[in-house]
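Hey L., structure's done. Input below.
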Amino acid sequence: MSDNKSAIQIIKPLNFRVQLILTLVSGTLWGPIFNLFCFLGLNQIAAYPTPEGVPPTKNNVLVNILLILSIFGAPVAWYRRYQSLHDYIDFMEVHLPSLPKKINEEGEEEEVKRLTCLTGKRFIGFAITTVLILLLLVVSFTIVIYHLIQFNKGLLPDTYWGNGAFMILLPIGIAAFFIGLGFSVRTAIEEKKWIKAFNSISIEIMAKNEK
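Output:
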């Protein structure tokens, strides 16, 4: 076995728990590094022979990391990462053997579906939806509270709370917190699915090329 073949047989798995802990500890600072590992992993998969008709996972890691570091470029990089893995698994389905069936609680055999992740379009879609909901809440709170202040003008004390400054910021802040929390939890769930799908297909590809 040549050294080159030995080199491409090793696809390093990603550990979701480690990535999650590092993200929680460092905040958003670990994000670019996590994405770096993801794009490098996709290139490791691309080092294996790709059947005709299967979209390769080869990517320009440097360009994608630079996109991640920018506000408007990050969605593009996320789209590429999710779409690349999803399409690869989807098109590789016919080139891989069926997964072993499992026995359900009734003792019957069930087909096991190959793990995959969201398409890039769906991932970006839920992110954009979150932002739109946040904007809608901000506008709604602002309009409602503005009219309440105008209706009670002269009855409220001349303080930060009374003149409406905090009355507008408080509900916006609360709404933003819960929406942001929901977005973070949903993102973590989808990232976990991405990692599990990546690790699973990596094991299959390595096993297929060992034969």
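The beta strands are 102-103, 109-110. The longest helix spans residues 165-210.

-- N.
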